[in-house]
Backbone:
């Protein structure tokens, strides 16, 4: 029976994809990939694996999600894409949907999979390397040791609803993600709380044009760097 | 120049190792691996990759850490193992040290790397799939969507110092790890707080003998299951 695979492609470096993901992508004729102006990382990863995965005989289907905050609009978008996938599955063709990072974290493929599962098709999640592990490894940092905890925070949303400051003051390591809109304000807040010296900001972790800003260096980021806010991860150690 | 590589082997399934880790392991003659009575996962992963990595011509060095809570004793253990690695590096031989999961999370290889870095040798962290991503993927769960946060909690320690209950009551998804000693008490606490129906417990995520307990099924765990407490991850969704 045809299976829907939500496939993690890892943080960007195509070498940070797992053997299992490569095997699944080899086996699926239909591959959906996320497409946006800001981010072609998943497709780029796939293309740079062309030696391993023969793309000539695949059907590559772009899909875009508007990232709207309107839940009913967003639900409709996902339903439409899930419906496209289901058509292939009904014809007996397994479908892979790519997701950067790991599919269990903020992934469109994961959400699509759950809709497809309700249609009665088998879904499988292929785990991958998330962006904060890649960011930590690039900067040779441990996120946690021994009895330390880790909080992963969608920082734009927490900033908007006023919850970020309390989170930043709490114990344990913090990873701030999804800062596309408020990165400047978040950096100001870190400065105000005297926390910048404990922060490391990694942009495009694992990619060739990766950039790392340690501590106060974050204040030297230029406008171009802020354009990559969406692909930034900030690690705050206590 | 010789390099020390802290290499993530992923959660257990040898297919959940990254292409980069395989390349590095192929290139290193010296491979250190963690050895304990409870856990031979990293070495098992390596052995099942024998088709890809020729182990005949490698020097495999076991290393064990006592997991003592005595910091000075623990520091001495790490120093001794780092010293063994440095001897190889001084002879111009690159060293890989395996770590299950991802090296940025609770990893002995990460801590060893930081000691070796102080000796002036280059260290590199190779990112991998962590156990909670594997657990979420096995149970087809998303850890986070949209504006949700994630807390990764070393649960034995938090239970011991009385901080666990407050964490369990807080917002966002919780991942409880490192429950080797207090799993029974932690499950009782979840029951008391009426949270069991939102919990999923995954043992040996991604391995052939993986077990998943959804919600109240956790109460049916037997003594043998509790022996695998160390390799259990509990995901609590709100």
Residues:
């Amino acid at each position: 029976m045809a299976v829907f695979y939500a496939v993690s492609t890892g943080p960007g470096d195509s070498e940070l994809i797992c053997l299992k993901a490569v095997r699944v992508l080899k086996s699926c004729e239909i591959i959906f990939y996320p497409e946006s102006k800001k981010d072609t990382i998943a497709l780029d990863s796939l293309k740079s694996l062309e030696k391993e995965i023969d793309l000539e005989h695949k059907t590559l289907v772009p899909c875009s999600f508007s990232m709207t905050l309107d839940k009913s609009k967003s639900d409709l978008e996902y339903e439409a894409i899930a419906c496209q996938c289901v058509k292939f599955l009904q014809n007996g063709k397994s479908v892979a949907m790519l997701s950067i990072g790991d599919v269990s974290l903020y992934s469109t493929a994961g959400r699509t999979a759950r809709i497809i599962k309700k249609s009665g098709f088998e879904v499988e999640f292929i785990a991958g390397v998330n962006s904060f592990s890649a960011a930590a490894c690039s900067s040779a940092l441990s996120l946690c040791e021994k009895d330390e905890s880790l909080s992963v925070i969608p920082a734009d949303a927490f900033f908007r609803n006023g919850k970020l400051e309390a989170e930043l003051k709490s114990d344990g390591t913090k990873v701030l993600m999804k800062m596309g809109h408020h990165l400047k304000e978040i950096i100001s807040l870190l400065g105000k709380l005297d926390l910048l010296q404990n922060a490391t900001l990694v942009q495009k972790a694992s990619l060739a044009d990766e950039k790392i800003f340690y501590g106060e260096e974050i204040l030297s980021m230029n406008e171009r760097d802020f354009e990559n806010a969406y692909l930034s991860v900030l690690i705050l150690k206590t």
About this structure: Residues 131-237 of chain B form a domain with the Methyltransferase, Cobalt-precorrin-4 Transmethylase; Domain 2 fold (CATH 3.30.950.10). The two ends of chain B are 50 Å apart (CA to CA).
